[in-house]
Structure formats: C-alpha cells, structure tokens
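Quick one, T. Sequence first:
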Amino acid sequence: MTTRRLSRLGSILVLIACALWLVPAPSDAQPRKGGILRVALIGEPPTLDPHSTTAVITREIGINMLETLFTLDAKYQPVPLLAEGAEALDGAKRYVIRL
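Structure tokens:
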C-alpha cells in the first residue's frame, strides 16, 4: 500500500470511530421515585446557613436546596416563584407577599 492509501484508510477509520463514539448507549433503566441522591463536592461546607458564611460551597449547595419567593425572567424582571404575587403599600414602604 502506498502512503496515500494508508493515510486515507487511517482517516476513514478515525471518522468511523468518532461516529461510533457519538452513538448513545441504550439504557434499560426506567426512572423511579424515591431513592438516594448522591452528589460529589469538592469540599465540606462550614454550615448550611447561607446567612452566616461567605463560603462559596454553602451558596452552591443552597441554590439546589432552597427556592426563593421571586426569580428573574429572561428580561431580568422579578416574577413570582414560590410567592403568588406582591402588593406595594404605603408608597412602596411596605410590601404584602401572598404565598
């Protein structure tokens, strides 16, 4: 075989290997309720109270455990998440948040 043919054959084999790598493996497992969720973390948080620490790991865990009353939409405007809505009273000095 010439160098050109070997090069072409090698390129074809690499393309086939890449194509096979992209094909997802079949999964027979069905989702089920319950069980245990295990998550790997880089370190251990000093506390789970986000108000008493500035540790980033506490914030990262809290984001997954806690939900807020409001969140931001695509235009960065506050929209209710857990709250049903809010009403400003006394010239926006007080707010009533309906849950």
